[in-house]
Every structure is written in C-alpha cells, then in structure tokens.
Amino acid sequence: MELHNLNDIAAFVSSVNAGSFTAAAKQLGLTRSAVGKSIVRLEARLQVRLLNRTTRSLSMTDDGQVLYERCVGVLQDLDDVEDALAFRRSTPSGRLRMSLPVALGRLHVLQHIERCLKDWPSLSVDITFSDRLVDLIDEGFDLAMRIGPPKEDSRLLTRTVAYQQMITCASPKYLAEHPQPQTPDDLSEHQCLHFVSGGRLLPWNFRVNDRSLSVSP
Questions:
Q1: In a domain, 33, yes or no
Q2: What percent of the chain has pLDDT over 90?
Q3: How many domains in the chain?
C-alpha cells in the first residue's frame, strides 16, 4: 500500500471519529480542504461513496461502515507498533551477543554488565569469553571488546572506551638469578612472556626518548 493511500484512510477514520472534516483536520494537523480531498480520492479509488455529507454533519454509508470497521483496528495496530518501537529506542531490550577477552571481561567488564541488567530488565546478554578475534558479522555478535588498535573494517563501528598502561616487571627470584636489563635491547638475553594474537607472538612496545621501539625478546 502506498503512503498516500494510508493517509487517505487515516483521514477517513478521523473524520468519522471527529464527526466533521474540520475537527479531523485539527487532529491530523491538516487543512479542512486536505481532509476533504483525501476522502474524495479514497472514494474514487474504491469506486464507492463512503460518507453522506451535509453542511452540519457526516454519516457513513453501508460501504463506509464496512471500511471503517476494518480500518480502525489496522490504524490502532500501527499506532501500537510505533509505541512499541519508541519504547525500544528509549529502553534497551532484547538479546545482546557480546565477545569479551577472558581476563579483561571477567575482571573489569562483567560487573558493569550486571549493573546494566539490573537497570534494564528487558535486556538479556549472551557473553562469550575468548581471546580470539571473532568475526562479529559472520559469527553473529552484536558487540566485541578488544585490546589494542582497532582492526580496519568498513562494516564495523569502533570506539575507544579505555586505555591501559603496560609495565615491564620480573619476580625478585628471577632478578636474583639473572642480570637486571637496563635497556629494551637487553631483553633478548632474558626469558620473556608473550601475548599471542592471531597465532603470532606480539612484540613488546616501548617509548624511549619520545621514540617508539618494538622488541621481540
């Protein structure tokens, strides 16, 4: 159904409910002439007379009664749909699928999600804890939190939510048995732990004298 057809039906139902074109025009935010033209256009399309018009009142014909009874419920259903969608926009609801890094998700993010669920009981969250870089679209995720620079993907929207600071550290026992490194290059002589991403070891990144330095111990 084309939009102007629906508008014509709305003008007809409003005219019946209000009792006149003038009152219907006020309800719809239109002119009396526009409402009258909608009724004429609707009657011409259906090839029936819908309303008996006098200078003082409107009354439905038998065909008008049939159309009114069928359409008044349809328009109410459309109003209900609009109200439901407006509620969904103002109040989070439905099912949200998330992918979170294991440690970050459990230690720092989960507590905030629990608080959101208390505030928005119509929302449910399905969380997958994984350090794997999931494909949000192919695997059906709505949202993912990742550590590091965002991956370039025109299909996704990204936003930085926090920053983390990395430090270089060692246990006292290890330093008692090995010489303490003085520069990042010294790390090549030490036993170091690495993060793994996408099947590869991630380098250690430093900032020395305003210069970025990447080291693979």
A1: yes
A2: 44
A3: 3
pLDDT digits (tens, 9 = 90+) for 135-180: 898 999 999 998 877 777 778 888 888 888 888 899 999 999 999 9
In a domain, 52, yes or no: yes
Instruction: Compute, in degrees rounded to 10, the torsion defined by CA atoms 31, 35, 40, 46.
Output: 150
Q: Are residues 99 and 136 in the same domain?
A: yes
Give the tokens for residue 207: 């900032």
Q: Which residue has the tokens 């256009």?
A: 41
Maximum CA extent, the chain? 105
Q: What pLDDT is recorded for position 156?
A: 86
Rounded to a whole number, what is the distance in angstroms from the first to the last CA of the chain?
Answer: 68
Structure confidence at residue 67 (pLDDT): 92
Rounded Cα gap, residues 85 and 72, in angstroms: 20
**65-69, 80-84, 134-138: least confidently modelled range:** 80-84
Print the domain residue range for 39. 6-87
Q: Residues 120, 78: one domain? A: no
